[in-house]
């Protein structure tokens, strides 16, 4: 169940991040031309704004909902197991997907760690300078800001000989600004996001664009401080670029440096842009804040609303096929499982407790193989924040007799199947959010009974399920219940 919950969260975050990054990538260049490089760099805050908004309490009614609320929906999970020659289907699909994602994440993290260590080793021995910087043993190392925890400014050994006094001042101003703004830490977080989203090419491309905007924004800030040094600053960039020409293949995931992969021509062209006036700078702040607010609001508003049947089922697409009530689910010639979430019942003196946001549990794979269902009633304590403090099984009963597994011929134990249904039901209700009970106009703790029915379409083992044998659609009810 943990793997399933992680994959659901990862899927939601991937969709949200991809949409947000698509908007940022489309707006970054127009925003840079209109309001400067620093506004384009600040626009990347839209991604954390959108992801953080996902964790805010869901709106009572989703502002982005356009579909009418239907009286009921059904959730049908296709069961692919009926043949003994399909041994590979014994694997629970979310489990191997989760394992693949984990292996990819650790492999990508190992690759980035190797790149970081390789870059640091290429610097040679580091010697502390008199100005709080470090001098690399290698003449072709730096300038760079190394590391995310206590980042250090590293300069080439011949820094004084290669750059004149004014150029040295500008280079140090550039690197110190990176350190003051926390750019090294930002790049480390970007590297972490790339590990988690290693399968998403948009994230890797966005990481490259962010580093470009980061460098150009740093250039613009330094030029704003020293507007008379544009030509000198361009010379310093060219010299710094020549320092690292032989180190083009080196990457620095946690830190900032002047690699040849950065568009030097674009950076030099940006030096010609005039410094923003105070009025235009304020307008840029307003535009960026509005865009960040819009990204966060869109992510928050896209969440399913409170207990609307249509919205509750929309958040459960990963569990299977959704069919309208009264229609036969399309699972021809295959047994099917259905999960019915019953109406929540308050236990006196609790009152007014209701569903807020819920995702039906997954059907236990072992129970699918055994063709067994269950009726579960949970007694749940809801706190004043609408969260579950405790969840206990009030009643539970298996439906049907366990069948032998089609691969190994073994029959699952009833006690084991009962415990599995209890575990998945409790895990599900703990992940839901609720409207707490009210007493005297204030939220109060209270108990509620939550029935969950897991049912299996019982067809003969030697006869495939026909359309008439398919189970009736199950209802997902999110309306408030009358007092028990």
Brief sketch in words of this structure:
With 484 residues, the chain is an alpha+beta fold. It is 44% helix and 17% strand.
Task: Walk me through what this model shows.
The protein is an alpha+beta fold. The protein folds into two domains: 2-58 and 94-301, no CATH class; 328-469, TolA/TonB C-terminal domain, CATH 3.30.2420. It has 14 helices and 16 strands. It has helices at 2-35, 37-42, 46-53, 93-122, 159-162, 165-181, 183-196, 201-225, 230-243, 264-270, 278-301, 309-314, 365-370, 414-431; strands at 73-78, 126-128, 134-136, 144-146, 152-155, 255-257, 321-324, 336-341, 345-346, 354-357, 373-382, 388-399, 433-435, 437-439, 442-444, 446-456. Strands 1, 7, 8, 9, 11, 12 and 16 form a seven-stranded antiparallel β-sheet that branches. A five-stranded mixed β-sheet has the order 2-3-5-4-6. A two-stranded antiparallel sheet has the order 10-13. A hairpin with a 5-residue loop joins β11 and β12. α1 (2-35) packs parallel to α8 (201-225). The protein is elongated, with a radius of gyration of 29 Å. Residues 65-93, 306-334 and 458-484 have low confidence and may be disordered.
């Amino acid at each position: 169940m943990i793997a399933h919950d992680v994959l659901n969260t990862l899927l939601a975050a991937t969709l949200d991040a991809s949409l947000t990054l698509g908007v940022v990538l489309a707006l970054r260049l127009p925003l840079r031309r209109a309001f400067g490089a620093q506004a384009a760099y600040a626009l990347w805050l839209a991604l954390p704004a959108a992801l953080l908004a996902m964790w805010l309490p869901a709106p009572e009614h989703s502002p982005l909902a356009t579909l009418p609320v239907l009286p009921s929906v059904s959730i049908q999970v296709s069961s692919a197991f009926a043949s003994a020659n399909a041994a590979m289907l014994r694997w629970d699909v979310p489990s191997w997907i989760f394992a693949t994602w984990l292996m990819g994440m650790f492999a990508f993290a190992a690759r980035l760690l190797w790149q970081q260590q390789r870059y640091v080793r290429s610097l040679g021995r580091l010697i502390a300078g008199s100005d709080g910087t470090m001098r690399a043993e290698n003449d072709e190392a730096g300038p760079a800001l190394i590391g995310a925890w206590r980042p250090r400014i590293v300069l080439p050994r011949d820094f004084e000989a290669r750059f004149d006094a004014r150029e040295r001042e500008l280079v140090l101003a550039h690197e110190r600004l990176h350190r003051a703004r926390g750019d090294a830490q930002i790049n480390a977080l970007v590297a972490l996001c790339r590990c988690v989203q290693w399968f998403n090419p948009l994230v890797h491309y966005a990481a490259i664009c962010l580093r470009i905007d980061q460098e150009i924004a740093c250039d613009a800030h330094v030029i704003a401080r020293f507007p008379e040094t544009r030509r000198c600053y361009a010379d310093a960039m060219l010299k710094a670029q020549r320092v690292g020409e032989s180190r083009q293949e080196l990457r620095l995931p946690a830190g900032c440096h002047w690699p040849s992969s950065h568009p030097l021509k674009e950076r030099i062209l940006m030096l010609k842009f005039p410094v923003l006036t105070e009025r235009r700078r304020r307008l840029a702040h307003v535009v960026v804040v509005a865009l960040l607010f819009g990204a966060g609001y869109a992510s928050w508003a896209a969440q399913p609303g409170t207990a609307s049947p249509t919205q509750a089922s929309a958040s459960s697409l990963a569990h299977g096929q959704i069919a309208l009530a009264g229609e036969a689910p399309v699972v021809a010639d295959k047994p099917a499982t259905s999960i019915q979430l019953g109406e929540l019942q308050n236990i006196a003196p609790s009152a007014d407790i209701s569903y807020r946001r819920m995702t039906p549990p997954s059907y236990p794979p072992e129970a699918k193989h055994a063709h067994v269902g269950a009726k579960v009633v949970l007694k749940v304590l809801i706190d004043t924040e609408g969260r579950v403090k405790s969840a206990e099984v009030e009643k539970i009963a298996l439906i049907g007799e366990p069948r032998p597994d089609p691969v190994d011929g073994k029959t699952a134990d009833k006690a084991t199947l009962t415990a599995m249904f209890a575990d998945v039901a409790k895990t599900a209700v703990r992940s839901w959010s609720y409207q707490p009970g009210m007493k005297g106009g204030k939220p109060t703790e209270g108990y509620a009974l939550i029935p969950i029915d897991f049912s299996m379409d019982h067809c003969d083992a030697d006869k495939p399920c026909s359309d008439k044998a398919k189970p009736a659609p199950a209802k997902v009810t999110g309306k408030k219940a009358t007092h028990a």
